[in-house]
Amino acid sequence: LERFMHGLWTSIFTPGANSQLLLAMNVSFVALFLSLLFLLLATGGNGHVFALLFIAMGLFASVQWFVRELAAVRAANEADTPPPPTTTTTTTTSDDADGEEKKVH
Known about the structure:
Strand content: 5-15%
Mean pLDDT: 82
Oligomer: single chain
Structural class: mainly alpha
Shape: elongated
Low-confidence stretches: none
Strand order of the largest sheet: 1-2
C-alpha cells in the first residue's frame, strides 16, 4: 500500500498517466457507481439520481476510451521511432578554399 501511495503521489508531478493513477481513478469510479446505485435504491428510483448515474457512466466510458487511445498512440510512436542517429562530427578541411564543412563519419 505504501508503494502504491508513493507511486500515486509521484505520478501527480510527472506528465502522463501511470498504472497507479489509472487504478486510483478506476477505484474512485467504482465507489461513485456504488454510491449512486445505493442512492437509486434508497430513493425509490429518483430520476435525478438515475441521470447522475447515466452521466457518471458516460464519463467513465469516455475516460477509458481516451486512456486506451493514448496508449495506442504511444505504442505506435514507439514502434515508428527510428533508432537514434550515429554521432557525426563536422570538420573543415584545410584544402577547401571556400571554407565549406564536410561531414566525416
